[in-house]
Amino acid sequence: MSKRIPHRLYLSEEQMPKQWYNLRADMKEQPDPMLNPGTMKPVTEADLYPVFCEKLAKQEMDSSNRYIDIPEEIQDFYKMYRPSPLIRAYNLEKALGTPAKIYYKFEGNNTSGSHKLNSAIAQAYYAKDQGLSGLTTETGAGQWGTALAEACAYYNLPLTVYMVKCSYEQKPFRKTVMKTFNAEIFPSPSTTTNAGNAILEKNPDTTGSLGCAISEAIEKAVTTPGYRYVLGSVLNQVLLHQSIIGLESKLAMEILDEYPDIIVGCAGGGSNLGGLIAPFMQDKLLGKADPRIIAVEPASCPSFTRGKYAYDFCDTGKVTPLARMYTLGSGFIPSANHAGGLRYHGMSPILSKLYHDGYMEAVAVEQTKVFEAAVFFAKQETILPAPESAHAIRTAIDEALKCKVSGESKTILFGLTGTGYFDMTAYNAYLEKTMNDYIPSDEDLQKGFDGLPSIPGIQ
Ligand SMILES: Cc1ncc(COP(=O)(O)O)c(C=O)c1O
């Protein structure tokens, strides 16, 4: 007799993973090393100390330890909202009339509303542990800023957030939540940093980008004694912290005697996707299983599908180390569409390498189709998804509809990274039919590629 699959599977506290999984330990070829832009030599752990906490710098450079203990204090914090549920989308399946089995891992079930808290609390913990006096960061959609504000308030650490200007204007209540947790917030680009002023001088009407906000946050960190900068995505350390999503998902699926044929996640800088796929990608790398893995990005900011695999700066002000990744160029300013958290010019170097080596696929989807899926999903599953998460929903639905045509009963797992209750401007634009689909032309993208750094002997 086949097992009855519940609508929601919650692991117990005891079943929550006690270690993060470091995917790099199983990669046959490593991502190319970050380069110091001054010397064009690979960065060392010590090079990162002025910007990052020391233990996080260590995690950033660690490509050999497969499992890394989650400090008990972080486990205790996680227990306030984890393990997160693995949900079988019975109603969605029925409404689609698909023979596919659709599962989603819901990370919006915490006060910050997204998966970002998994890394925020870890980064705040290591900052406190090092005795730092404060942190700075950027935020696009505001989800990361909110999560980090909560984590910093928990450890009584001051936090300065540079929020991408168009999101700052579109989402006034995100600011209120962050302020409730004591964070100081500036719209980026701002006039409070040299980087912000330089960007404004060139382009006074810019709506900002994550790349601009990163430059400002780094400048503030390195010019304020006892401060360090933290980033909510892209970095190896962030994917490491987010591996808890995939580890819990895999365990829950094992309990249900299930294994995904297709895994889908939205991709901004790659942290939720990198976390969700981590243990499944391990199976793929070790030849134990071969699930299809699909990254979903907005057609307006298509780093995987139309970007170049090249060394580039992680920020617009060109102060960070150079990372080899899929990029649209650090000067690329995406249109002010609504999936704020997916509007980053680059992509995690780990995911970039895996994509480049053929271990995963990517698709780009248009904004109105994403919102169509979001509204359909909300009605069936009663969760109002974040616009970012709805990119994954769009592709999961498309794959389930293909199963309807082929008659195959594939098992699809997607990451529902967060809720969209602060994204009412975007939902409103969709419902009132004022939302536009913007797809950059090849000429638009070429402007970004023209700004890629030239590195003698490399590119
Ligand atoms: C809800 C949500 N999902 C996904 C993302 C994308 O980030 P990442 O690719 O790092 O998971 C964001 C970023 O802000 C977000 O807020």
From TrEMBL:
Description of how the protein assembles with itself and partners: Tetramer of two alpha and two beta chains.
Role noted for this protein: The beta subunit is responsible for the synthesis of L-tryptophan from indole and L-serine.
InterPro entries, A to Z: Trp_synth_b-like, Trp_synth_beta/beta-like, TrpB-like_PALP, TrpB-like_PALP_sf
Keywords per UniProt: Amino-acid biosynthesis, Aromatic amino acid biosynthesis, Lyase, Pyridoxal phosphate, Tryptophan biosynthesis
Ribonucleoprotein in keyword set: no
Cellular component, GO annotation: cytoplasm
GO molecular function terms listed in the Swiss-Prot or TrEMBL record: L-serine hydro-lyase (adding indole, L-tryptophan-forming) activity; pyridoxal phosphate binding; tryptophan synthase activity
Protein name: tryptophan synthase
Domain of life of the source: Bacteria
Keyword match Amino-acid biosynthesis: yes
Cofactor(s) of this protein: pyridoxal 5'-phosphate
Pathway(s) served: Amino-acid biosynthesis; L-tryptophan biosynthesis; L-tryptophan from chorismate: step 5/5
